[in-house]
Write a structure and sequence with these properties.
alpha+beta, Elongation Factor Tu (Ef-tu), domain 3, 3 helices, 20% helix, globular, binds flavin mononucleotide, ATP binding
Length: 152
């Protein structure tokens, strides 16, 4: 819808720690060039666009993985693609962040983090149902790798 605004981030998928697979939520990791910027840390519902133009719903984390790295980690974007199985390494993805769901949190255990991720995915399903991929505003130009654009 035209009255929705989005943050858009673009970048190449980099190898992560592989921990996401163990948790049951493998993520596509994208480096953020701008470590401060107007896009704050948090968890978002959004869409990921692949180089072939297909769009996949995603629950997206922006932050430093405080459960594992305290406040010292570097900031990155991590997208968990819903109902997707496949290898994204090396692909340049465009990530649309549509709704801010919650802040980043340092969880006491992997189990608590997994429960939170499951809730994020359910909330994301509701959001994407109301905001289909076809309603995303078009980009005049994609942002440079690792940089954040505000659209809509
Ligand atoms: C939707 C979503 C929400 C997340 N929320 C948090 C969070 O609140 N706290 C946190 O420490 N990590 C959070 N993460 C990041 C996970 O810690 C991270 O994906 C996991 O450690 C796997 O890292 P890896 O991809 O480098 O293997 C989140 C990830 C996703 C996809």
């Amino acid at each position: 819808m035209a009255d929705e605004s989005y943050f858009v981030v673009r970048g190449r998928v980099e190898p992560g720690d592989q921990r996401g697979r163990e948790l049951g939520f493998p993520t596509a990791n994208i480096a953020l060039r701008d470590q401060r910027g107007e896009l704050g840390d948090g968890v978002w519902a959004g869409w990921v666009e692949r180089p072939d133009g297909t769009r996949v719903a995603a629950a997206v984390s922006v932050g430093r993985r405080p459960t594992y790295y305290g406040a010292d980690g570097y900031r990155l974007v991590e997208a968990f693609l819903l109902d997707f199985a496949g290898d994204l390494y090396g692909e340049s993805l465009t990530v649309w962040l549509g709704r801010h769901l919650r802040e980043q949190k340092a969880y006491g255990s992997a189990e608590e983090l997994i429960e939170a991720l499951a809730r994020d995915v359910e909330t994301t399903r509701g959001w994407v149902a109301e905001h289909p991929a076809a309603t995303l505003p078009s980009l005049s130009a994609p942002p440079p790798d690792g940089e954040v654009l505000r659209v809509g």
